[in-house]
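Hi V.,

You were right to ask for the full record rather than a summary. Here it is.
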Amino acid sequence: MVTVTLRKWLRDPLFLLALTAGLIAFAVQSGELGSADTQHREQSAHAFWTNEPPVFPYEFPEFGVHGRGGKLQSWYGIGQSLLMLPADVVGTFVERLPAFAGYYGNDPSVRNIIVSYSTNILLNVLTALICFRFLRQLRFEVGQAVGGVLALLLLTTHLHYTQNMMENNYICLLTLAGLSYQYDWLRTGSRRALLIGSGAFGLNLLTRLTTGLDLLAGALFVLLVLWLEGVRGRELWNRCRSYMATALPVYFFFGLLDRIYQFYRFGSFFNTYMSVTARETLQRNPTWPSNYPFETPFHIGFFGALFEPEKSIFLFDPLLMLMIVLTAVAWRRFSPAVKAYVITCFVLLLAYISFYARYTVWSGDSAWGDRYVSTAVELAALLAVPLLLRYRSEVGRLIWSLGVVLIVVSAVVQATSVAFWLSLEIYQIEILGHPTFVVPLRIENTVAFALGKMDAWGLGTHAMTEDPWDYVHISTWNFLPFLLKRTGEAPMWVVNLAFAVWGAGLAALAWVLVRLRGVLVRAG
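Predicted structure:
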C-alpha cells in the first residue's frame, strides 16, 4: 500500500515540484540567518518567551531605540519574528541538550541552524505550491506553470533570499497567496477564499508596513480583471462593494494588531517605529537633516534602483528584461487576467521604487541587490518563463533565443548569489571604490575561488576586515558543511556527516528534477 502511494506521488507533478522546492532550500542553507537584521528579528522572537531582552544594551546605538520605560526595543515589525518563533523554541531546547554542550555558543549556532533550515524550507515549499496554484488559475498549462515556479525559485533573487533569510520571501509568499485567493473569489464568489486572501495581505502588514502597497495591489488586480473583462456599472459597483465588505474588516483587524504591538513597545497607537527611531537618532545627531530618514534626493534613489551598478534591478534580476520584451511583443495575445497581473505588478514595482527613493538607505544597505524592491521585481518577472513557453511559436526565433540567453544569464547570476556570504563584495568595494558592478564581481569571485586564484586576481580577502568572524565567513563557500569546516569548531565527524547529507540532498534534487521533467513529457 505504501509503495503504491509513493509511486502515485512520484507521478504527481505538484508533489515533485514541492519536493524540488524543499530540496533547493535545503541545498543552499548556510545554517546562519544571513544578516544582522534577521538575527535581531530572531532575538525579538526569543524575547517573547524567555527572559532575554529584544535588544541587548551593548548593541545600542548601532541598533535599537528606547521605548516605554526606557527599555530598548527593536525597530522592526513583529511578522517575521512570529514566523521564526516555533523554530526558535525548538532550536533553543535542542541547543541545550548535553550532546551539544561542547559546541554551545559557537557559530553557526545549533539554534540558528534549526531556524534557518526549517523556516526557509517551509517558505520555499509553500511558495512553490501557491505559485503553481496561481499560474494554473491564470490558465497556464501544467508544464508552463512548473516552469514559472522553477524560474521564481532558481532564476530570481528569491534564491538568494532562500539562503539569506530577510523578510523578502515571506512577503512574496503572502502576496502571492493574497492574489491567488482573491482571484479565486473573483471567479467563484467564495467568501472563504476572499477571507484567506485578505488575511494573507493582512499578515504582510505585521511584517513590514510598506506592504500596504501589496494590499492595494491586490485590490487593483481585482478591479483591473473586472474592468478588462468588460464589467461596468452596477455590476462592477456590487462586486467592489462585496470585496470591501469582506476585505476591509480583515485589514482593520491586522492593522489593529500592529497598533497594539506599537503601543506595547512605544506607548502610542499613532506613530511608527520609523518615526520613533528618527526622533531619537536626530537627538543624538542634531546636525543631520531634519527630514531624516527621508533625506535622499528622489532622483538618486529612483534611478539608482534602475541603473546603479551596485543595485540595479536589471542586473540582479535579468528575467525582468525578458518580461518587458514579452509584454511589448505579445501584449495583444495576453488574457485579461494576465494583462491585469502585468499592469498591477509594474505599478507595484514603480510604487516601491518611488516610496524608497528618498529613504536614507534606499538601496537596502547591506544586502544582495535592492532588497526593498526585490520582491516586487520577482513578482513582475514571474510570468516571463510561462509566457515565453506559451507563445514560443508566436514571438519568433529571435525573441525565443533572447529568452534562452536571459534564462542562462539569470541562472548564473542567482547560482553565484548564494556562493558566498553577501558581505564579500561589500568589503571589496571599500578597496575597489564606487561604482562597482557587483554581479560581475560576484561571478569573478566565484570563478577565482574555485580555481584558487583569489590573491592572483587581486581579490584576496586577507586585508579586508579586522573582524575574524567576518574574515572566516567571506573566505569560504557559503554552505553549511563548508562553514562548519572553515570555523573549525565542530568535530570532524560532524563535518564529514554534513558533507555526506548535503551531497545526498544535491543528488536527490537532481533525481527529482529529472523525474519531474519525465512526468511532464509523458503528460504531453
